[in-house]
Amino acid sequence: MLTVEGVRVRYGPLEALHGVSLTVAAGDVVAVVGRNGAGKSTLVRAVAGYLRPSGGRVLWDGVDVTRAPIGQRAAAGVMLIPDEGGVFRSLTVRENLEVFAGAGRSDLDEALDTFPDLRALLRRRAVLLSGGEQQMLALARALLAPWRLLMVDELSQGLAPYLAARLYAVLAELAAAHPDRAVVLAEPHPRAALRFVGRVHVLRRGELAATASPSDFDAATL
Ligand SMILES: Nc1ncnc2c1ncn2[C@@H]1O[C@H](COP(=O)(O)OP(=O)(O)OP(=O)(O)O)[C@@H](O)[C@H]1O
Fold first, then answer.
1. Ligand 1: distance of its center to the CA of 54 in Å?
2. pLDDT (tens digit, 9 = 90+) per residue, 9-41?
3. Reported ipTM exceeds the 0.95 cut
4. Which CATH code, of 3.40.50.300, 3.90.226.10, 3.75.10.10, 3.20.20.70, is assigned to 1-77+147-215?
């Protein structure tokens, strides 16, 4: 489904990714781990189209989308929840969900059934939500879009461990229920995510340093 081939990304004079290659197949739930600054966010942003690689290729269903705009990739099912969550802070919870559900679609039940805590918050502005509630809203919104590849950058950031575990479990269940879908978790602190993923890609200083099964993954390799 996704093939990343030798992708390089530069920020001005700094090259943050030095030719990273990996694949994600339908049904996969994978973690991309690495220390702060290793290049995790850069990689998922390049896949989603927020950043233009300076080298290499991103293939989606075999089609070269390296230079395709974000909207075109999103329409094809490639979705990123960025590390700042990406919710519209001045809109209410309901409005945030409706924007993503698309014109004419009023059925928010699928997302609200998955995150029932949001039902009581529908009229609250996103800016007033706690960090955990904002993460739930960001994920709930993503569920309303027609995603096939969902990448979440630092899902566990600022969350209580029980809540992070619940959100990982929701994503893993969604991937299991829809074998044509895949989930990529970019995580600096991978321990809590490991039991939900089938594979771990370790990024180190902009390079893919290792790929391991969660049981073989050794945090010392970070
Ligand atoms: N907008 C930017 N301008 C310049 N350099 C950047 C920019 N964004 C990231 N970098 C640099 O690129 C490298 C990779 O950063 P990136 O954010 O991808 O790492 P990360 O693994 O996601 O880290 P973290 O876990 O801290 O989010 C780092 O050296 C970082 O300083």
1. 16
2. 999 999 999 999 999 999 999 999 999 999 999
3. yes
4. 3.40.50.300
Q: What is the pLDDT of residues 95-125, one digit of tens each?
A: 999 887 765 555 788 788 888 899 999 999 9
What residue owns the CA closest to ligand 1's atom 12?
16
Query: What's the farthest any 2 CA atoms get from each other in the chain?
Result: 50
**Residue 83 Cα, ligand 1 centroid: separation in angstroms?**
12
Which ligand 1 atom minimizes the distance to the CA of 34?
A: 21
Query: Is the shortest distance between the CB of 188 and ligand 1 below 6 Å?
Result: yes
The predicted model scores a pTM of 0.92
| Cα 142 to middle of ligand 1, angstroms | 24
Q: What b-and-e string marks burial along 2-31, b requiring 16 or more CB atoms within 10 Å of the CB?
A: bbbbebbbbeeeebbbbebebebeeebbbb
Per domain, the residue ranges of the chain are 1-77+147-215, 85-145
